[in-house]
Amino acid sequence: MMGALLSQRLLDARGAVRTLAGMLVGSIDTTASCVAKIIAVIGRDRKLLQAVADDADDPARMLGWCWEAPRRWPHNPLVLREALCDTRLGSYPIKKGEQLWLWTQAAMQDESAFPDARRLRPDRPAEQYLHFGDALHVCAGRSINSVQIPMLVTAIVGRGIASVGPVAWAGSFPDRLVVRFER
């Protein structure tokens, strides 16, 4: 991937360093943050936990739960971008080069995009989620995340969650999450 990006001159030196670093370590912090937050969200709501546990044998539904739970507590609620050209966001004009702070967590609570947004539903279309970017910048690990994260969550839920403590943080990454199991 890096060779293709560099040979096509799609990355400058700064972009190459950022992309390589993201490839090397991005999946670790993304996976740890996502799984910890998903378990915290579902493990603290007995009714939700039961619904997720009931779907543990259905990979498509588990993927849906793993994309829905982070709408409540996303691993990356804000993305920073720079406008590549003059454009509009709704009725707001944006000039080329302007820095944009996009609050994906708010967007994923928008009733026009997520009807009945307060309710978690594993049957929503996957393309609606903004957890791993969209359009020109989609996370390189998105496909890996769509397999790895539900696999880990399914294994944890399958043990029978009795309780979930608070997430302890080491900077912006989860350091510890105490989960007590029924079995």
Give a quick account of the main beta sheet: strands, pairing sense, barrel closure. 2 strands, antiparallel
Largest sheet strand order: 1-4
- Helical percentage: 40-55%
Shape: globular
Strand content: 15-25%
The overall strand count is 8
Average pLDDT over all residues: 89
Please give the count of helices.
6
Structural class: alpha+beta
| Rg from alpha-carbon coordinates | 18 Å
Order of helices and strands: HHHHEEEEHEEHEE
First-residue to last-residue Cα separation: 43 Å
Give start-end ranges of low-pLDDT stretches.
Answer: none
Task: Write structural notes for this entry.
The protein has 183 residues and is an alpha+beta fold. It has six helices and eight strands, in the order ααααββββαββαββ.
What's a concise summary of this model?
By secondary structure, the protein is α+β, with helices and mostly antiparallel strands.
Question: Which tags fit this structure?
Answer:
two-stranded antiparallel sheet, 183 residues, alpha+beta
Q: What does the secondary structure layout of this molecule look like, with pairings?
A:
Elements: H1 2-7, H2 13-43, H3 46-54, H4 59-72, E1 78-82, E2 87-89, E3 92-94, E4 99-103, H5 104-107, E5 133-134, E6 137-138, H6 142-158, E7 161-170, E8 173-181
Antiparallel strand pairs: 1-4, 2-3, 5-6, 7-8
Helix pairs in contact: 2-4, 2-6, 4-6
